[in-house]
Amino acid sequence: MTMSPSICLAILLLALVSQSPASASIPGTSNNGFAVAAPSVPTATQFLQAHNDARRDVGVAPLTWNSTLEQDAQRYADRLSIGCKLEPLDIELIYLQNTYNGSGYQDGAAVTASWVNGRRWYDYRANACVPGHDCGAYKLMVCSTVQELGCARRTCRSSPDTVAVCSYFPDCDYNDRPY
Ligand SMILES: *[C@@H]1O[C@H](CO)[C@@H](O)[C@H](O)[C@H]1NC(C)=O
Ligand SMILES: *[C@@H]1O[C@H](CO)[C@@H](O)[C@H](O)[C@H]1NC(C)=O
Fold first, then answer.
1. With a threshold of 0.85, does the pTM exceed it?
2. Which of 57, 58, 60, 88 has the most other CB atoms within 10 Å of its CB?
3. Total tally of structural domains belonging to the chain
4. Is residue 24 part of a domain?
5. What's the per-residue H, E or C state across the chain?
6. Span from the CA of 87 to the centroid of ligand 2 (angstroms)
7. Domain interval for residue 155
8. What is the pLDDT of residues 96-154, one digit of tens each?
């Protein structure tokens, strides 16, 4: 039996309509908690989702994206991309930041994954990093008093390597446990 063209069209339209809620994902939604690994995911979404996954893992409320913080991160990442090193810059720090540099092209998900790696070095009882290891970026990612973030990645000026910055607001008291 063959379907008439109009029934075909109706079925197609139904399929499209029923798909639209799932495909209408906006930055800030976390796809029911499942990370989206497709490379087509916008950089902002990659950064935001990885932060909120790490926060959910320890029971901390999600962050929202803030374009003022994104501009701050872009400004700082632009400058870091010149030397490609994690050196302090002669520009005023307005917000708390996490910074990154790494070999080759690294997307937002890879950058945040390197920070989340610090989780294994964070001693919650002592509220300190295991000596000789860095967990500071992870602590800032999951800090419960932080509410907003904005991030940017840049390819270095004179190599295919990556620098990235996330700026956070309002504050995180490093003397307190992050959560
Ligand atoms: C974004 O952050 C800036 C600086 O902290 C703040 O003034 C502004 O209200 C924030 N915007 C939104 C939409 O939350
Ligand atoms: C990252 O920065 C450090 C200095 O902070 C530098 O030694 C290293 O070469 C940089 N890595 C890359 C991939 O540029």
1. no
2. 60
3. 1
4. no
5. CCCCHHHHHHHHHHHHHHHHHHHCCCCCCCHHHCCCCCCCCCHHHHHHHHHHHHHHHCCCCCCEECHHHHHHHHHHHHHHHHHCCCCCCCCCCCCEEEEEEECCCCCHHHHHHHHHHHHHHEECCCCEECCCCCCHHHHHHCCCCCCEEEEEEEECCCCCCEEEEEEEECCCCCCCCCC
6. 9
7. 43-169
8. 999 999 999 999 999 999 999 999 999 999 999 999 999 999 999 999 999 999 999 99
